[in-house]
Design goal:
Layout (H helix, E strand, L loop, with lengths): L9 H6 L7 E4 L2 E4 L7 E3 L5 H11 L2 E5 L8 E14 L12 E3 L4 H11 L14 E6 L2 E12 L2 E9 L8 H15 L3 E7 L3 H9 L3 E4 L2 E7 L2
Length: 225
C-alpha cells in the first residue's frame, strides 16, 4: 500500500506485521478478530465485495484512517473524529504512584472499568492486544492503561481510564508515562488517538510530550439492511 508514513494506515500495517496472527481476511480486506477490535483495512486491490464478505462473516467492522471511504454494500453506523498524536520522548513529572502489571486473569475487571469509563472501543480480548498496567485501591482496579495497535517501529498507548470516584489523583498521567516510556525503551515511537472534541484531553497529552500528527476518523460500518 502506497503511503507516506506507516501511521497513515496504522491498522493495515499492524495487521500485516506484528499483529498479523489476530487477523481475519476476505480477499484484499482484513480485520482484527472481533473479540479484540472492530478495526479493518484493505490493500489497494481490495474490492467492495471483500469488505461486505468480511462484515457478513464477522459482524460490524470499522475503518480508522483519514477520510475513510464507505465501501458499496456497507453503511455507516457511527463515527468519531480523532487526532493522532506521537511522541519520541515522554516528559517527566507527577508524583510516583505504585501500579501493577495486569494479566488475562484481570480481563473481566478491565472490561468492566472500560465499559464504565468509555476510553474507546474495548471488547472481551482487547486487553490482550498488548501489555497493560493498573492501579488498585482496596483490591479494586480503579485505573489502567496499556497498548493496542502495534506495527513495526510504532506502538499505541490506549485503554487509559480511571474510575470516576478516583479521578484527580494523577493516575492517568502516571500510567501513561510508564507505558509510554516502556514503548520508547523498546525502540518504538509512541502514538495515541484522542477524540477531536476532547480539547482538555488533547492538551493533557501535549503536556506528556505528544504532538498532533493527522486527523483520522473511526467509522463503524455494517451491511446495508
Amino acid at each position: 500500500m502506497a503511503t507516506s508514513h506507516p501511521l497513515d494506515h496504522a491498522v493495515w500495517n499492524a495487521l500485516n506485521s506484528r499483529q498479523a496472527s489476530l487477523s481475519i481476511r476476505e480477499g484484499g480486506a482484513v480485520r482484527f478478530d472481533p473479540a479484540y477490535a472492530t478495526f479493518a483495512a484493505a490493500g489497494p486491490d481490495a474490492r467492495a465485495q471483500d469488505w461486505t464478505a468480511l462484515a457478513r462473516a464477522t459482524g460490524p467492522i470499522s475503518r480508522f484512517e483519514t477520510d475513510p471511504v464507505i465501501p458499496e454494500g456497507l453503511a455507516e453506523v457511527a463515527r468519531i473524529d480523532c487526532l493522532q498524536m506521537t511522541a519520541t520522548a515522554i516528559t517527566s513529572g507527577g508524583r510516583e504512584i505504585g501500579f501493577e502489571p495486569l494479566t488475562d486473569a484481570d480481563g473481566t475487571e478491565m472490561l468492566a472499568l472500560a465499559t464504565l469509563t468509555q476510553p474507546g472501543p474495548f471488547f472481551s480480548k482487547t486487553h490482550l492486544l498488548g501489555p497493560f498496567i493498573g492501579i488498585r485501591r482496596d483490591g479494586v482496579l480503579v485505573a489502567m492503561a496499556g497498548e493496542r495497535l502495534s506495527l513495526d517501529g510504532f506502538s499505541e498507548v490506549s485503554g487509559v481510564c480511571t474510575h470516576p470516584d478516583y479521578r484527580g489523583h494523577g493516575y492517568a498521567g502516571a500510567l501513561m508515562r510508564a507505558v509510554g516510556q516502556r514503548i520508547l525503551d523498546r525502540g518504538d515511537t509512541v502514538f495515541l488517538h484522542a477524540r477531536i472534541a476532547h480539547a482538555d484531553t488533547i492538551a493533557f497529552y501535549e503536556t506528556l510530550g505528544f504532538k498532533p500528527r493527522i486527523t483520522p476518523s473511526y467509522v463503524v460500518m455494517d451491511l446495508v439492511s
